[in-house]
Description:
With about 150 residues, the protein is of the alpha+beta class. It is built from 4 helices and 8 strands. It has helices at about 15-35, 45-60, 90-100, 140-150, and strands at about 5-10, 65, 70-75, 75-80, 85-90, 105-110, 115-120, 130-135.
Amino acid sequence: xxxxxxxxxxxxxxxxxxxxxxxxxxxxxxxxxxxxxxxxxxxxxxxxxxxxxxxxxxxxxxxxxxxxxxxxxxxxxxxxxxxxxxxxxxxxxxxxxxxxxxxxxxxxxxxxxxxxxxxxxxxxxxxxxxxxxxxxxxxxxxxxxxxxxxxx
Length: 152
């Protein structure tokens, strides 16, 4: 049976964050080139630019998915039967849950370049994790998908 409201998202790095990252890598490579003139001066560019691209790609590899009766966030997963209340968070609520109101055993997947988030209560008595805090660009869609999947 098909899921009524499938949800899948990848928490990629925003395109505008690539610009300063590449600019910093170019600046560092230029500093190396200025400090070590000679035939091998382009090695810094050949090393730093690909490393920057790979690093940014790796930062954006996290996937959030509701499928096969589970909520999956990267390698972690929880069956939908153990999910309690799902709450969309305002930026202030997200900041509070990451700061002064944070629970030390909460499962957190937070990306600072993504403003939205949801809080998913864990309803499993055997699990010490009180809730999952997940960054998402579409908090209402994720909440709706979780609610629909649990009912369906």
